[in-house]
Design goal:
The chain has one domain. 41% of the residues lie in helices and 17% in strands. It is built from nine helices and nine strands. The strands form three sheets. The protein has a four-stranded mixed sheet. A three-stranded mixed sheet has the order 7-9-8, with helices on one face. A two-stranded antiparallel ribbon has the order 3-6. A hairpin with a 4-residue loop joins β8 and β9. α4 packs parallel to α5 and α7 crosses α9. The longest helix has 21 residues.
């Protein structure tokens, strides 16, 4: 399978949701990031595919064979979800000047099922539900760790949330302007996502070379920040309640870009994963290689 075909396959249902006018990553993430039966969190586009629009309350996924190995089975008629697996293969054009084999990274897909689609598969004890109060505390810890460890300044003033790249400053309305803490933190996490692109951090094009909020370039940066906020909400166990400004315009822009190049969604999810890793302080691998 060509890498471009793999990208198109896994992004098809997200495109369908966007075409229906739904921002698919604005979903409850209370169970945390999607996780394999082995306890390893899915990353990047795979986390997005398994969580956005998922009808299941569990965040645990496994393959058909893994269900059988655990004495259970996938129920007849259940449809699996395709996710991307990145593989490394040796290229056919010989060796490098240093005598090393040339390699390339390519993408293929494999199919997983939610544990709720299975019978006879016991949920491991480590997947315990998270509490509402603890989620708020985790969200505050995530934000505080990043902001006090070389992050941008945070100012509570005005009625609009925004990140100012040149000043490296996040502006947020006061907390009492939000309906609840989930809405406050999901909004803050979005602006934090933008701030990771500063030249002194991840140096993303849409932030480091900021050319206006209405630009085509910045619409892609909005997509990265949207993903990042969703990942951080998932890490905290909070519902992502942020409502984007001019959502119809962004939906049209994202659909245009994704349809022209399905890899746009994969790259945005990957950049957002790096942003979330920076905020969380994780030393994550650059490329996702989670095998089932």
């Amino acid at each position: 399978m060509k890498t471009s075909d793999a990208y198109a396959k896994v992004t098809a249902r997200l495109i369908a949701l966007l075409e229906a006018g739904t921002v698919p990553w604005h979903m409850p993430w209370r169970t945390g990031m999607p996780t394999s039966i082995h306890g390893r969190a899915y990353r990047g586009i795979n986390a997005a595919i398994l969580a956005f629009g998922s009808p299941y309350t569990s965040n645990v996924w496994l393959t058909f064979n893994q269900a059988r190995e655990r004495g259970g089975c996938v129920r007849k008629g259940e449809k699996g979800t395709a996710v991307i697996l990145f593989k490394v293969s040796k290229r056919e054009d010989g060796e490098t000047a240093e005598g090393e084999s040339r390699t390339r990274l390519y993408a293929t897909t494999y199919t997983v099922f939610n544990i709720e689609q299975c019978d006879g598969v016991e949920l491991p004890k480590r997947f315990a539900p998270r509490g509402e109060v603890a989620a708020d505390e985790r969200a505050e810890q995530i934000a505080a760790r990043y902001l006090t460890a070389g992050g941008p300044a945070l100012v509570h003033q005005g009625s609009r949330a925004a990140y100012a790249p040149k000043a490296d400053k996040i502006h947020m309305p006061n907390r009492n302007a939000f309906d609840d803490t989930s809405e406050y933190y999901s909004t803050l996490f979005h602006e934090i996502g933008h701030s990771t692109g500063h030249a002194a951090r991840l140096n993303r094009e849409g932030v480091a070379n900021f050319d206006g909020f209405a630009s085509h370039q910045y619409s892609k940066e909005e997509l990265v920040a949207e993903f990042c906020a969703a990942y951080l909400c998932a890490e905290a166990g909070l519902e992502n309640k942020r409502t984007i400004d001019n959502s119809a315009a962004y939906l049209r822009s994202w659909l245009r870009d994704i349809k022209a190049d399905p890899g746009v969604l994969v790259r945005a999810a990957s950049q957002a994963q790096k942003a979330a890793d920076l905020v969380l302080g994780d030393a994550a691998e650059e490329e996702e290689r989670e095998a089932a």
